[in-house]
Each structure stands twice: as C-alpha cells, then as structure tokens.
C-alpha cells in the first residue's frame, strides 16, 4: 500500500482492476489494498490515515458496531457492487455517512451470465464438457443424453429489477413467455409483456425455468415446499444470492429428478460451497462470476470513484443507498 506524502482521500479496501487503481491513485491519492481487507484492518487503517472515503467489499462489510468505530473523517462508504447487504446502511446514515452502490454497472454482463446458466443447465453443458475432456470415443444415438429445450419455454423471474428485466429482454429473443414475481407490479412499459404474479406459490407451478434476481433478505425463499411446487423437469437458476436457497432441498430435488437441472453462480457458503453439488452431473457450477468481465468490473470501480468524487466535491452522490 503506497500513497504520496500528501493527504490520502480514499482507502480502497479491496483489490480492483488496474485501470480503477490507477484512477484512484491519480485523483484521490488513494491507499489501495493488495488483498481484500477484513473489518479490523479497515478500521485501523482509516483511523491512521484520516481518509474521508472508503471503498469496501463483502470481506470488509460493516456492521452497526463497526460503523460506530469509524473515525469522524469518514464521509462516504462506496460499494462497487449493486448489492449492499453486507453492511448496515441505517447505522451509517445515523452517523451522517453517505453510502453508495453501483446499480447499473454490472446489469448487462450479469444478465448475459444468467442466461448462460439457463442454456448450460438446460443443454447439459457440464456433462458434455466432461465427455469431451475424458476423450469422447463413443457416439450417441438419437435417444441419448438429451437436454431440455430453451426456446419457447416459460421463464419465471423472481425479482424484476434491473438484472431481472435484462434477463427478460434476452428471453424474448428465445420466444419465452415470461412470468415474474416482485414486491410490487411494474408499470406496463417496464413489464414489456411479462405477466405479473403476485403470489410466488401460484407462479412456481407454471415455470419451466425459474431464475432468481433479487437481493438477499431475512428468509430462505426456495424451500423444500417451493421446489416441490415447480413442475417435474423444471430447471432452476440462481445468480443472485446463495442465502435465498435451502441447499439441502435443492440437492434432494436434483437427485430425485424433480428438477431436470440447475445452473448456480452463488452459494450459502462462499467459497466453501457444499461439495455435494459438485458431484451432481445435472448441475452447472460457477464460482460467483456473474459480473466478471473487464468492462463490467472497470465500470463498477469507476462508478464507486464517481460517487466518491461527487461527495468529496460537496455534490450529492450519484447512486445513494
């Protein structure tokens, strides 16, 4: 961690792409972590540096008790992600600290990735890949190793925010009828032909494919009962939050054949995910990489820096939480 002798304006408490780090140093004389920092390290360094801004990650997510220990110099906590469930926003506001996120930066790339999970799960991508890597030498006949059609299948989306709507746009290109469940119904121009279902329990039996796109909350959304309400042979996709899913129930549904397959990018325990999932052939797995493109990650970092610049210049934040 190196900074010029003059005053540090920003602590970046997580690793960032090179372009983001270069701008942070140039504009804010930033101190940048070589590894993602934990909370005690962030608190100690903030007290030492007297910086007015900090960019955090999940490893350095602040509880109310942590925020109470931040020095008076802190004016903004910037999150370079859309989600901010790793910190206590109300406690920050109570101290007069501005909290921001990056709601638009990762939308399109995460939606691309989510649709990849849909395609990969339906078309048995993991199994086909393993066949090839083991040196495919036996031809398959017409009834062998069949996947599930995507085109024309009914897609259920839970959480019709920016990413959910972006997934729906992609699904329309596959002629998929779209159902969605949300806390509130969207205006017609945002629904764009999707059908709102106010009760999730009523929507689940109508879904050939179900995809989650909502933030983590206080309860597990996909329970054993919820999985059982999906039709036999349905496909489940989660690129939102692992805490939304009862993984024991998910594994049971996959092993029994009630679910045809699943595409997963998030897990209840990361990176120490349940290894039983890796043993199931009908699961396509990714290590929480939904936004992992150069374009998206740069924009996530730049959005955090844009918010820091606005606040330190005395202007309102661009993306307040």
From TrEMBL:
Domain D-isomer specific 2-hydroxyacid dehydrogenase NAD-binding: 115-290
Superkingdom of origin: Bacteria
PROSITE patterns, sorted: D_2_HYDROXYACID_DH_1, D_2_HYDROXYACID_DH_3
Domain D-isomer specific 2-hydroxyacid dehydrogenase catalytic: 53-321
InterPro entries assigned to the protein according to its UniProt record, in alphabetical order: D-isomer_2-hydroxyacid_DH, D-isomer_2_OHA_DH_cat_dom, D-isomer_DH_CS, D-isomer_DH_CS1, D-isomer_DH_NAD-bd, NAD(P)-bd_dom_sf
Any Gene Ontology CC annotation: cytosol
Gene3D superfamilies, alphabetized: NAD(P)-binding Rossmann-like Domain (3.40.50.720)
Keywords on record: NAD, Oxidoreductase
A Pfam family: 2-Hacid_dh
One GO MF term attached to the UniProt entry: hydroxypyruvate reductase [NAD(P)H] activity
Similarity section: Belongs to the D-isomer specific 2-hydroxyacid dehydrogenase family.
Entry protein name: D-glycerate dehydrogenase
Species the sequence originates in: Telmatospirillum siberiense
């Amino acid at each position: 961690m190196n900074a010029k002798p003059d005053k540090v304006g920003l602590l970046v408490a997580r690793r960032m792409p090179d372009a983001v780090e270069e701008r942070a140093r140039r504009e804010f004389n930033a101190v940048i972590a070589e590894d993602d920092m934990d909370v005690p390290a962030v608190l100690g360094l903030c007290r030492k540096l007297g910086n007015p801004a900090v960019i955090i990650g999940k490893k350095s997510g602040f509880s109310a008790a942590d925020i109470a220990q931040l020095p008076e110099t802190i004016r903004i906590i910037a999150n370079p992600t859309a989600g901010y469930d790793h910190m206590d926003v109300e406690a920050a506001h109570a101290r007069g600290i501005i909290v921001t996120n990056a709601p638009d930066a990762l939308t399109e790339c995460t939606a691309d990735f989510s649709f990849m999970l849909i395609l990969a799960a339906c078309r048995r991508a993991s199994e086909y890949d393993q066949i090839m890597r083991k040196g495919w030498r036996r031809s398959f006949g017409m009834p062998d190793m069949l996947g599930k059609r995507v085109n024309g299948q009914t897609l259920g989306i839970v959480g019709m925010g920016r990413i959910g709507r972006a997934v729906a746009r992609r699904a329309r290109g596959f002629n998929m009828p779209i159902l969605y469940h949300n806390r509130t119904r969207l205006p017609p121009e945002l629904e764009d032909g999707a059908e709102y279902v106010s009760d999730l329990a009523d929507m689940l039996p109508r879904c050939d494919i179900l995809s989650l796109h909502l933030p983590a909350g206080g309860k597990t959304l996909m329970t054993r009962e919820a999985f059982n309400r999906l039709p036999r042979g349905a496909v489940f996709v989660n690129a939102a939050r692992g805490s939304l899913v009862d993984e024991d129930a998910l594994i049971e549904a996959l092993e029994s054949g009630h679910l045809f397959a699943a595409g997963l990018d998030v897990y209840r325990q990361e990176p120490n995910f349940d290894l039983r999932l890796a043993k199931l052939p009908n699961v396509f797995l990714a290590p929480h990489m939904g936004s992992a493109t150069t374009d998206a990650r740069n924009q996530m970092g730049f959005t955090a820096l844009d918010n820091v610049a606005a606040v330190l210049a005395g202007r309102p934040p661009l993306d307040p939480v």
